[in-house]
Each structure stands twice: as structure tokens, then as C-alpha cells.
Specification:
It is a single chain. The chain is an all-alpha fold and 105 residues long. Helices cover 61% and strands 0% of the residues. It is built from five helices and no strands. The longest helix is centred in the last third of the chain and has 17 residues, at 72-88.
């Protein structure tokens, strides 16, 4: 998987233990000791995204960007998550304009 290199880098887990859930636990423990570490926040956001916990991932990225507003990778991942959240929370029955076409408003 392409995300493995980015999020598992620097962890002390054996290959068979490399599950997103296990890594999430390890990153959360590490963040208890260093709550504003940008690398840990970014890596946990990537794992949360992999687990489908988009809101939690976005929260970590927002927290990271409050400390480091120029973190380009976090900005890009947050933009992606915002798009995902926008469409996963879209209620197609309340608005027939599912493509948000301006001429249908």
C-alpha cells in the first residue's frame, strides 16, 4: 500500500503488526507526550483517513495548521478531506442539485 511508507516511518512495529488500528494507538500515545508535534499529527491524520474517520483526520490537520500554517502537505490533505466530507454528508433527497450546478439554483 502506498500510505505505508509515510505513516509507518519511524515506528517500532514488526511487519505483521503494521495495522492502521495498531498504528493509531501508537500515534495517539506519542501525541500524549508531544501533543503539538506536526509530524505525529500529520501521520495520525493519514491513518485516520485510511480508517475512514475523516472528521477526526481533519481535526488533526486543522490543529497542525494552527501551529504551522505553511505545511503544504497538511493543506492538501485537508482540502481532500473537506471534499470527501462534503460529498459523504450530502443529502441527495433534500437537494436535487447534487452536482451543485449554479444554473439549477
Amino acid at each position: 500500500m502506498c500510505w505505508r511508507y509515510d505513516v509507518f516511518r519511524g515506528t517500532e512495529m514488526k511487519k505483521e503488526e503494521e495495522t492502521p488500528e495498531r498504528l493509531l494507538d501508537e500515534l495517539t500515545k506519542a501525541l500524549e507526550k508531544a501533543p503539538d508535534d506536526p509530524d505525529l499529527l500529520y501521520r495520525r491524520a493519514a491513518v485516520l483517513q485510511q480508517l475512514g474517520r475523516y472528521g477526526d483526520a481533519a481535526n488533526d490537520l486543522i490543529r497542525l495548521l494552527e501551529k504551522e500554517p505553511d505545511h503544504e502537505a497538511a493543506q492538501q490533505r485537508l482540502a481532500l478531506l473537506e471534499e470527501i466530507l462534503k460529498f459523504t454528508n450530502l443529502d441527495i433527497f433534500s437537494d436535487p442539485n447534487t452536482h451543485h450546478d449554479p444554473w439549477m439554483e
